[in-house]
Predict the 3D structure of the following.
Amino acid sequence: MTPAGGGSASPAGAQTSPGTTGLASLAVLTVAATVIFIIWTATQLYDNAPPSGLGHWVLLAVSVAGAAASVALLRPAAAAVSDGRTARQMQVAGDAVGFRVHRARSRNSALVAMGSCLAAAVVALFVLFLLANNRAVQQTFFAPDMVSRSWLEVTKAFGTNLFIAVVGEVIVLAWGLVVALARLAPGPAGRPIAFLATAYIDAFRAVPAIIVIYLVGFGLPLAGVPVLSAMSPTWAAIFALALVYGAYVAEVYRAGIQSIHPSQMAAARSLGLSYSATMQSVIVPQAIRRVVPPLLNDFIGLQKDTSLVTVIGTVDAFTQAKIYSSNYFNLSSVTVVAALFIVITIPQTRFVDRMLARDQSRMQARG
Amino acid sequence: MPFLEIRSLHKSYGQVPVLKGIDLTVEQHQVICLIGASGCGKSTLLRCVNALEPINSGEIRLDGEVVSGEGTDVNRLRRDVGIVFQAFNLFPHMTVLDNITLAPRRVRGLDRSEAERRGRELLARVGLDGKASSYPDGLSGGQQQRVAIVRALAMNPRVLLLDEITSALDPELVAEVLDIVRELAAEGLTMLLATHEMSFAREVAHQVCFLHDGVILEQGPPEQIFGAPTQERTRAFLRRIIEAGRL
């Protein structure tokens, strides 16, 4: 179709696409449906609120805020409609560029509106899931009285998880590097050492952590080995997790070391530095900078796996929470454990991101 | 007695022969330029002299002492033979000053203050005294290569190998690097350099070697190699260089 406008030729992209107004209309319909759905969910939420007390007011506030916020979805939908209208006017006036710009804006706003609706609807569905079966889900996982009854003891026991994680990480940081360097040991003399390191890595990456913890925690005391058998369950757990994660972390280190270009090794060796001095001053410092993010990944894995020590009877947060959950037939105490893991993990991720950014900007600073 | 002597040096990578019998003698205070097409073995020859590549057969002598083959103390050899690479190969996680002082401290056992004093002196000589605490990524290519030269010089090498040190530089940065090499030549540092900068080779070299297919096909003073080459291959190579506007 040629835009009405005398003899002006139709530039590419100026054709009317019937989908344009269609998309804006679809966005309006979606937003209308979503707003109704959210307001209905909000009334459901308020219906389930306790008749009085703090809970009543909190849920009332949440319901009102949710319903009010849903109205914000109208904005992009309105923008889509208004830009669509402008686009049509420009098309009639023969302004091909203006038509294209406003059509693109209309489309964008329509997509933003529908994307936001999807997210909002998922949240509303989750709220309805909690309310389902007369609030059974919420009562099972998020019962406030169970949380307040158990959180103190569970948080105290979480200290054991933190202790195992921190000590384990310190050991793994050093042990993993030792294994990685052994795996990369150069020359014919290094070959048997490299073979041994590879065998260790293969074995301990293959065996599930829970089995290693079980074997170490119950097996060593039975075996009656001096020193090792006298370990407390907590130290047995640290030992077992260090064995497992040492293998993972060794591979992370190895990948980092091998990612450093061979010219760095050549440059350092050409200055007369020995192999070990080159590793120490040139290769490993660069490798560690590169592997910090995957290292954090493995550390978060280790932190989570501290909850496995419950199988050998170490009293950690999970063990403590299970006592509550089986006594009261309610899982809210376990939810507390889950929340604690989230709380300790997120700051670490941000901290590492910030640290890496600072290191990057330092090395790339002009001047 | 010749200072650096290379005799029937053979080197292959796996089944592929790269150097097929190199004979080369370098007197003290001489500057030798290696020219030739890419892949003719210039870089490999330099890396063999520095023992960065093991050789298959032949012999390298430095000041009369055999410094190649089994049992050579490569770390000792490399204290006397420095090398500067095409791609600079600075250590990106260290400041310029730490790049320079690493080897003097770790290999020669200098204490930090002494190493840094000498490092700053050398940096001042190449006009980079203000960059001591910068990191390599913050420097231009020419500045990085000057730091790399200083890093090699900080070990007081008796021979300096330069492996196409201007090939990775933008044209306007080449001069600042060559000026330093020119100065070092004037001071009498023994140098062996692989280069594509023909006019520079003509200017500083005492001897020019044309490498072709793993052997030194022609060797002589620059006037002879560039003015009246005797080998057809040399003439063909120089013709291509002139056509490319590089001479």
Summary: Chain A touches chain B through 23 residues (CB under 8 Å).
